[in-house]
Amino acid sequence: MKTSISLNPTIIVIFGGTGDLNLRKLAPALYNLYSDGYMPEKYAIIGTARRKLTDEKFRETIMDGVNSFSRSGKVKQEKWNKFAEHVFYSPVDVEAPETFGDLKANIERHQKEFGPDTQILYYLAVAPNLFPLIAKCLSKYKLAGNEDNCRIVIEKPFGRDLETAKELNCILTSIFSEKQIYRIDHYLGKETVQNIMAFRFANSFLEPLWNRTYIDHVQISVTEQLGVGDRGGYYEGAGALRDMIQNHLLQLVCLIGMETPVNFDADEIRNKKVDVLKAMRPFGPEDIRFSTVRGQYTKGWVEGKEVPGYRHETGVAPDSNTETFAAIKFFVDNWRWQGVPFYVRTGKRLFQTSSLITIQFKDVPHHIFPSTVTEHWQQNRLIISIQPEMSIRLQVQGKRPGLDMVLNPVDMVFDYKGTYTTESPEAYETLLLDVMTGDQTQFMRADQVESAWELLMPVVNAWESKKSLSFPNYTADSWGPEDAEALIARDGFHWFTLPLNKD
Ligand code: NAP
Which residues does substrate bind (predicted)? Predict the structure, then answer.
């Protein structure tokens, strides 16, 4: 989160330069940062991957990516040409360390040109099994720098369980200091997610209500209409629990649940978030039975087109036990949240693509209105919509205009589109700029990642060791398995949705 920018000369090395993430997200983000005047005066972007490309060919490849995926549409040619002068390519096979020589020479050439203040950022947009190899090669070739001049960005997934996350942390911290390591969770770079901190801690009216006395329960729902598409091979080794809940959804729980930080220092904020993870109630066998639900989609129809079931997607085993849906009830055992359930759910091939956080407040202590005037009595709700709508709604009871006293729920809405005319940056723009300025606030510290894994390991182990007999158990274009409705209905609630247009 920036207020003013002054950047040292910067070299950005993107491992996986030819991959999907770079073409869809990183290259468009860097080009938009350049277009908006946020890149340093002196910078070089060096893409690397195994295939042999010239600088020119690499520039063309990423221009195609920017043209297809940038929020600002196709590039403006003159601007692009200037940006592209800073873009280079060095082939490297990270499984053959001897191929690092050219990359090292390329980096050193720019370092020499830019001067002693140059900082180097390594972005690891490659398969996770290559993370340790790259870190070790950077160390071997004396490219790992120090706290002041070098940073490394690690994409998700960070480990596939507690043990592998600890191993990766151990390798990284043997080469880099924690201050150099940026474990990215792109959800934290989204405008509406960052606004949760502003909303909670820049306004005084909320804090007295933000606790077990006034809050009934919290729901976090991140749903996707898309299936796994061509990422079936990757998804088979992940599933909804690892791919979404361990990182994005638990981070949202932390933002809602955290205590007020004393300042905006990165470590102070991360301390407060990790406190939430540490306070979350561990899962015993009974909790896994009654407080978790897993699902897998079967075929169905989405907007008039027949779509395959998960087990028929490319790269997926015909008897796959991988969950494409997960719903979990968590508790945060501390003074603020004791007894307040946090329901989270996420899944693919669901009815709607949306990310919603709903805080439902407790009912009024005493109803003074006769039941005849309350058409649709509803407890107050605060709904933070992260996507596709970017808004915060407070749902309150209001009097319908007319001679009779009739009450019904109405929305007080803060809507980004209606309030601001400036377009919101993409999450990757915000986060890449944070890496360049050395701001770790929105990045996961080692203990955050490990605490999240520690919490979920009993569920991971239970789901892996006991194959689901009910899979597939929900139809594409539905809201997931019936058990997920039952999970929340048992407590007297239901999952909230906004009447959003499908996109
Ligand atoms: P991808 O499309 O498969 O790209 C992988 C990249 O790694 C390619 O550039 C590939 O190029 C390169 N590569 C593979 N083996 C290599 C080797 N031995 N040495 C050097 N380079 C090698 O994968 P992706 O979708 O971009 O994902 C990259 C990472 O980002 C993964 O960790 C993924 O989980 C994470 N991520 C991706 C997304 C997304 O939207 N795509 C979102 C969130 C996180 P060559 O074949 O030419 O070597």
Answer: 186, 190, 224, 243, 348
Domain final residue pick, 155, 180, 202: 155
More confident residue, 377 or 174: 174
User: By C-alpha distance, which of 461, 471, 493 is closest to 345?
Assistant: 493
| Dihedral sign (CA 134, 135, 136, 139) | positive
CB 349 within 8 A of CB 227: yes
Q: Which of 105, 132, 155 is the last residue of a domain?
A: 155
Q: Residues comprising the binding site?
A: 50, 93-94, 156, 186, 190, 224, 243, 348
Residue 183 CB less than 6 A away from ligand 1: no
| For residue 1, pLDDT beyond 50 | no
> Would residue 217 show up in a list of annotated catalytic residues for this protein?
no
Tell me if 319 is assigned to some domain: yes
**According to the model, what pLDDT value does residue 423 have?**
86
Residue among 20, 91, 86 nearest 53 (CA)? 91
Q: How many CB atoms lie within 10 A of CB 257?
A: 24
Q: Is 173 part of a structural domain of the chain?
A: no
Whether residue 177 is contained in a domain is answered as no
146 shares its domain with 193: no
Closest-CA residue to 196 (of 269, 275, 279, 278): 269
Position 5 pLDDT exceeds 80:
no
Q: Return d(Cα 359, Cα 217) in angstroms, integer.
A: 6
Ligand 1 atom closest to 186 (CA) = 43
Total domains present in the chain = 2
Q: Is 51 in the pocket of ligand 1 (CB under 6 A)?
A: yes
pLDDT single digits (tens) 173-232: 999 999 999 999 999 999 999 999 999 999 999 999 999 999 999 999 999 999 999 899
Which member of 86, 217, 248, 367 is catalytic?
Answer: 248
Give the pLDDT of residue 3. 43
Could you tell me if the CB of 125 is within 6 A of ligand 1? yes
Residue 193 shares a structural domain with residue 140: no
If you measure from the C-alpha of residue 194 to the centroid of ligand 1, how many angstroms do you get, rounded to a whole number?
Answer: 27
Q: Indicate the Cα dihedral angle 243, 249, 252, 257, nearest 10°.
A: -130
Calculate how far, in angstroms, residue 244's C-alpha sits from the geometric centre of ligand 1.
19
User: CA 416 to CA 34: how far, in whole Å?
Assistant: 24
Range of the domain at 436: 188-489
Highest mean pLDDT among 95-99, 201-205, 303-307: 201-205
Burial class (CB in 10 A: 0-12, 13-18, 19+), 471: buried
Asked whether residue 359 is assigned to any structural domain, the reply reads: yes
| Residue 313 backbone zone (phi > 0: left; psi -120 to 50: alpha; other: beta) | beta
Q: CATH number of the domain at 14, please.
A: 3.40.50.720
pTM of the model: 0.94
Shared domain for 106 and 226, answered yes or no, is no
Indicate the annotated binding residues for NADP(+): 50, 93-94, 156
Same-domain check for residues 106 and 60: yes
